[in-house]
């Protein structure tokens, strides 16, 4: 069972270590973790995807995180409607004669070539983990040499009301 958490934490040395240590001590597996600056100075946003055993453990994780001094906010996005994205860079074998085939393959994924060498290219793709996995499966026959993935970044979607939907229709919001 997966649990997706969004945290706001104080941006101090050692915060990431203390949070990951909390999971280590309790034997929780972190599938992905991303950390970066957010809209508030001195505050960072963490997105953590965990492998948990059951609902009781999910609740325990939230409570343990909320007790941490440097954790300002904990939001469980597991059951919420959220925008999630991941970035992936892939170095692929691509001799000149294969590049047009490769370009045709990545285009439906809205991926792009961001570096071109004599024998290899680097492909950049963003999207859901499932979308990235699907592209990687199609790229493997070309010869995948290196892969780097960022892990999930997530924000909850705005809770839509009748007025929210009207705002989208009027162009005041963006529907993804």
TrEMBL record:
Catalytic activity: 2 pyruvate + H(+) = (2S)-2-acetolactate + CO2
Function recorded in the entry: Catalyzes the conversion of 2 pyruvate molecules into acetolactate in the first common step of the biosynthetic pathway of the branched-amino acids such as leucine, isoleucine, and valine.
Pfam family, one: ALS_ss_C
Subunit structure: Dimer of large and small chains.
Origin species: Brockia lithotrophica
Name listed for the protein in its UniProt record: Acetolactate synthase small subunit
Gene Ontology BP term (one): L-valine biosynthetic process
InterPro entries referenced in this protein's UniProt entry, alphabetically: Acetalactate_synth_ssu (IPR004789), Acetolactate_synth/TF_NikR_C (IPR027271), Acetolactate_synth_ssu_C (IPR019455), ACT-like_dom_sf (IPR045865), ACT_dom (IPR002912), AHAS_ACT (IPR039557), AHAS_small-like_ACT (IPR054480)
Protein family according to the UniProt entry: Belongs to the acetolactate synthase small subunit family.
Pathway assigned in UniProt: Amino-acid biosynthesis; L-isoleucine biosynthesis; L-isoleucine from 2-oxobutanoate: step 1/4; Amino-acid biosynthesis; L-valine biosynthesis; L-valine from pyruvate: step 1/4
SUPFAM superfamilies listed in its UniProt record: ACT-like
GO function terms (MF aspect): acetolactate synthase activity; acetolactate synthase regulator activity
Gene3D superfamilies for the chain: 3.30.70.260, ACT-like. Chain A, domain 2
Enzyme class: transferase
Keywords: Amino-acid biosynthesis, Branched-chain amino acid biosynthesis, Transferase
Domain ACT intervals: 4-79
Gene Ontology CC terms, in alphabetical order: cytosol
């Amino acid at each position: 069972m997966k649990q997706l958490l969004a945290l706001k934490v104080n941006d101090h040395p050692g915060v990431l270590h203390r949070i990951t240590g909390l999971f280590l001590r309790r034997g929780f597996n972190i599938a992905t973790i991303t950390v970066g600056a957010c809209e508030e100075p001195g505050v960072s946003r963490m997105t953590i995807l965990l492998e948990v055993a059951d609902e009781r453990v999910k609740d325990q994780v939230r409570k343990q995180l909320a007790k941490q001094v440097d954790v300002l906010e904990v939001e469980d996005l597991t059951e919420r409607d959220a925008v999630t994205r991941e970035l992936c860079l892939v170095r692929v074998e691509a001799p000149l004669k294969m590049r047009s085939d490769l370009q045709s393959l990545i285009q439906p994924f809205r991926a792009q070539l961001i570096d071109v060498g004599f024998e290899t290219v680097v492909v950049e793709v963003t999207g859901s983990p499932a979308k990235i996995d699907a592209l990687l499966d199609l790229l493997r026959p070309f010869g995948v040499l290196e892969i780097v993935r960022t892990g999930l970044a997530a924000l909850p979607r705005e809770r839509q009301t009748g007025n929210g939907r009207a705002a989208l229709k009027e162009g005041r919001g963006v529907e993804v």
